[in-house]
Amino acid sequence: MATLIAVLPGDGIGPEVTAQAIRVLQAVAPGHDLALEFAEGLIGGAALDAGEPPLPPATAKLCDSAAGVLLGAVGGPKWSDPEAVLRPEQGLLDLRATLGVFANLRPVKPHPALLSASPIRAELLADVDIMVVRELTGGIYFGKKTRSDTDATDECRYTVAEIERIVHVAANLARARSGRIVSVDKANVLETSRLWRQVTTRIMAGEYPDLELEHMLVDAAAMHLLSRPASFDVILTENMFGDILTDEASMLAGSLGLLPSASLGVAGRGLYEPIHGSAPDIAGRGIANPCATILSAALLLRHSLDCEAAAGQIEQAVFRTLDDGLRTADLAGGAASASTQEFGDAVLARL
Ligand code: IPM
Ligand code: MG
Question: How does DSSP classify residue 185?
C-alpha cells in the first residue's frame, strides 16, 4: 500500500516551492522501495479564497490520515486587514494544534559554499551547527486574546507538562549531539519564563545529569547568536522566542530560503515546512529558493517515514547543487543562476 503524504501548498511562493519538493520525493522514492501517494489540501489564504475557513475540515482530515504533511507557506497582504476576523495564519496554528506537533526542530548549519552569502563574517560561521528546538503549540500564540476599542491582550500561558515534554525532546537530541543545551527565556520579566527555567532545571538535573544546561535571556541570546554563533549547539525555547530567533539564525546560513523544519508530536506523523513565509513580493515569478522546502521533504523521510537513506540522498543532492554554484535570486542578488524550476531540475539531476 502506498504511503500518503498530504501536501498543503498554501499561499504566495508556497505552491512554487512545494512543487519542487514533490518532484524530488517522487524521484527518490523508487530507489528506496517507497511507494508514495500525494494528496493536496487547501490552507490559509487559498482556503479563505475558496470560501472555507483557514483550516478547512477536509484538510484537517486529510492531514490526520497522512503519514506526513508537507506545507509551503501561508499569509499575504491580501488577507492582512487588521479588522479581518479570519486570517490565513490561523489555519497553520490550528493545524499544528490539531496534529499535536509540539516540537519544532529547526536545524541551522551554514553550507560551506554559502559563507559569503551571510552578512556575518565567514570566520564566525565555519563551525556553526545549531539545532533550535522551538515549543510550537503553547505560549502566547495560543493564549486567550481580547480586543476592545481601547485595549488588546494576548495571554501567555505554559503548563508544567508542556514544558516537560519539550525539554525531553531537546535533551534527547542533545545526547546525540554535543550534549549542550542553552535554554532561552526571559525569566527576569516573565512568570512563564520563570516556570520554564524551573522545570527545565529539574528535568535536566534529574534525568539528564550527563548533559550541560545553560539558561540565557532571550535578548542576550539574540546578541550572542550573531557575536559567537558557533558556541551554540541545542537551543531550547518557547514558541515566540523560537519564531524570532530562527529568522535571525537564518542569516547565519545566508538566506531564509534555506532553512527547513520538522514539527513532531508523540506520533510518528509530522508537519514539515520551510521556516520562511509566503514572500508575496516575489510570488508567481518563479524565482523563489526551493531549498528549504526540499530539505523539509528530506526531514519528512527521516522523521516520519524512517528512511534515513533517502533523506540523506536528497540533502547531498541539494548541497552538491549549491557546491556547483547554482544560486536562486535570494542568494545572488542580481546574479541569480537558477530559477525555482531550474534549481529543482539541478537537484533531480544530482540525485
Ligand atoms: C513560522 C511562521 C509562523 C509562526 C507564522 C506564519 C504563523 O513565522 O513558522 O516561523 O509564527 O510560527
Ligand atoms: Mg517565523
Answer: E
- Determine the Cα–Cα distance for residues 156 and 139; give it in Å rounded to an integer: 5
At the top level of CATH, the class of 1-104+256-351 is: alpha beta
Written as nine digits, the cell of 61 is 482530515
- What does pTM read for this prediction? 0.96
Residue of 49, 64, 210, 219 marked catalytic: 219
Which CA distances in Å does 346 have to 101, 152, 216, 251, 315? 32, 49, 41, 24, 13
- Predicted local distance difference test score (pLDDT) of residue 344: 98
For residue 286, what is its C-alpha cell? 518563479
Position in ligand 1 atom list of the atom nearest CA 261: 9
Q: Where are the domains of the chain?
A: 1-104+256-351, 119-253
Q: Is 75 in the pocket of ligand 1 (CB under 6 A)?
A: yes
Same fold, 1-104+256-351 and 119-253: yes
Atom of ligand 1 nearest to the CA of 273: 9
Q: What's the grid cell of residue 211?
A: 548533559
Residue pLDDT, tens place only, 222-259: 999 999 999 999 999 999 999 999 999 999 999 999 99
**Measuring from atom 9 of ligand 1, which residue has the nearest CA?**
275
pLDDT category, 115, cuts 50, 70, 90? very high
Would you say the CB of residue 275 lies under 6 angstroms from ligand 1? Answer: yes
CATH superfamily ID and name for 119-253: Isopropylmalate Dehydrogenase (3.40.718.10)
Provide the CB-side half-sphere exposure for 305 (13 A, CA).
Answer: 30
Catalytic residue, candidates 158, 186, 208, 272? 186
Q: Which of 89, 101, 238 to mutate to test the pocket of ligand 1 (most atoms within 8 A of CB)?
A: 89
